[in-house]
Write a structure and sequence with these properties.
Elements (H helix, E strand, L loop, with lengths): L2 H51 L7 H27 L5 E3 L5 E3 L4
Antiparallel strand pairs: 1-2
């Protein structure tokens, strides 16, 4: 073999070996990172649970406002349903355009 071919072969082997070692190193780092994910999640959930047990309120006031709005909207819808049921009781039947009566489930 000529000197140039030996050098090319050696450099190719070194690059291949470095690539294999690098890939194994990256895989090990990814495996460790994936392993830390559930641990961090469990820790975060436990901290949140303890914070809620201590009576702490959520730090985001927009979430509280949205929750309050949703609860008030729900109550308003329940009152409207009662009002309309008193005016016209719900039978659970659906009358189609052709006059066919279809039984529905009552909620």
């Amino acid at each position: 073999m000529s000197r140039a071919s030996r050098i090319t072969f050696t450099v190719s082997c070194l690059i291949t070996a470095a690539t294999v070692v690098g890939v194994h190193y990256v895989q090990e780092m990814e495996r460790e990172t994936l392993h830390q994910g559930p641990i961090k999640d469990a820790k975060r959930v436990e901290e949140k649970r303890l914070r809620n047990l201590d009576g702490a309120t959520p730090s985001d006031p927009t979430k509280e406002r949205k929750r309050y709005f949703n609860m008030s909207e729900h109550e308003e819808q329940k009152e409207l349903r009662k009002k309309y049921e008193m005016m016209q009781p719900l039978s659970g039947e659906v009358v189609t355009k052709g006059g066919e009566v279809v039984k529905g489930s009552k909620k």
